[in-house]
Each structure stands twice: as C-alpha cells, then as structure tokens.
C-alpha cells in the first residue's frame, strides 16, 4: 500500500515538472523581439521586458536562418547561423551576452572557413583560416584580443609569409 502511494506521488511530481518545463520552454521568432544596444551590450526584449528563451529567425523560404537562446536579455549558449540550404554557416557560444569559447565558420559546402576562440568577448588563443578546398590559409595566436607571436599566411601558389607581432 505504501509503495502504491509513493509511486502515485512520484508520478504526480513528474507530471508537474514536465508541465512547468514545457510552459517555460519559450520559442520566439526574431521578428517579435526588440533588440537594444546598451553600452556595447546587445539585449533582447519582448513586450518591454528582457527576454529569456529561444529565438529563431527564418529565411523568406521558411528555412531556418539562425537560432540561439537568451537569459535575462543576453545571448547565452550556442548561437547557430545557417545557409539557406540548411548547412551551418557559423556556430559560437555565448555566456552572459559575451562570446566565449570556440567560434567556427563554414563555407556553404560544409568545409571549415575559420576556427578561433574567445574569452569574454575577446579573441584569445589560436586563429585558423582555410581556403574553400580545406587547405590552411592563415594561422595566428591572440591574447585577450591582441595578435601575438608569429602569424603565417599560406598562399595557394605554395608560398608562405611570416609576420611577427
């Protein structure tokens, strides 16, 4: 008898949590959102309140153009942009509205175009750029937004230029 009561309570609690999560899992189209730039920060609002939830944008054709989430009006989590053919154009991560971690852009054939890293909105770490055939084009290093060390430029003809910073 006690076991049935426990199972029933767990079922009710689980159902309640699913309903609450489903109600809070908001998705809005970018056209419904107001964007404000305040002191170099981009904030997202809906109905005059900072927006928390997922935001999508679509092409005229209806295919997905971009998707990202906000918390208290700031981008937070993965930010993904798509080409109209459905392939990923860029993927990056935001924390409290600032670029954080890996940023990757791709050509419309799916080949990587650039890979770099950010720390609190500043390029920090390696930067690599590729030709559309996948061969390396440029590579550099950054420290808190400043290019440091040697930077290499690889030409399609086979030549290499080295720059020091």
Summarize the structure in words.
The protein is mainly beta. It folds into two domains: 71 residues, no CATH class; 66 residues. Helix content is 14%, strand content 56%. It contains one helix and 16 strands. The strands form two sheets. Strands 1, 5, 6, 7, 8, 9, 10, 11, 12, 13, 14, 15 and 16 form a 13-stranded mixed sheet that branches. It has a three-stranded antiparallel sheet with strand order 2-3-4, with no helix packed on it. Strand 8 and strand 9 form a beta hairpin. The termini are far apart.
Q: Which radius of gyration do the C-alpha atoms yield? A: 22 Å
DSSP helical segment count: 1
Q: State the end-to-end CA separation.
A: 75 Å
How much strand? over 45%
Query: Mean pLDDT, rounded to whole units?
Result: 90
* Largest sheet properties: 13 strands, mixed
Structural class: mainly beta
Strand runs, count = 16
Please trace the helix and strand order, writing H or E for each element. Answer: HEEEEEEEEEEEEEEEE
What is the 3D shape? elongated
Which regions are unreliable across 5 or more consecutive residues at pLDDT < 50?
Answer: 19-23
* Helicity level: 10-25%
Overall tally of domains: 2
Helices and strands in order, then pairings?
Layout: H1 2-24, E1 27-29, E2 34-38, E3 41-46, E4 49-50, E5 53-58, E6 64-71, E7 74-75, E8 77-82, E9 88-95, E10 98-99, E11 101-106, E12 112-119, E13 122-130, E14 136-143, E15 146-154, E16 160-164
Parallel strand pairs: 1-5
Antiparallel strand pairs: 2-3, 3-4, 5-6, 6-7, 6-8, 8-9, 9-10, 9-11, 11-12, 12-13, 13-14, 14-15, 15-16
């Amino acid at each position: 008898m006690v076991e049935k009561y426990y199972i029933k309570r767990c079922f009710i609690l689980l159902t309640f949590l699913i309903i609450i999560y489903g109600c809070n899992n908001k998705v809005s189209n970018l056209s419904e959102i107001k964007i404000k730039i305040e002191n170099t920060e981009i904030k997202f609002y809906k109905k005059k309140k900072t927006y928390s939830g997922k935001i999508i944008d679509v092409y005229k054709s209806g295919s997905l153009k971009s998707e990202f989430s906000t918390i208290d009006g700031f981008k937070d989590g993965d930010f993904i942009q798509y080409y109209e053919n459905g392939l990923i154009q860029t993927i990056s991560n935001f924390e409290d509205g600032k670029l954080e971690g890996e940023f990757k852009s791709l050509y419309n054939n799916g080949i990587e175009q650039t890979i770099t890293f950010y720390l609190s909105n500043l390029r920090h770490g390696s930067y690599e750029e590729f030709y559309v055939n996948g061969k390396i084009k440029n590579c550099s290093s950054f420290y808190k937004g400043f290019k440091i060390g040697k930077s290499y430029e690889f030409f399609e003809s086979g030549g290499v230029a080295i720059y020091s910073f």
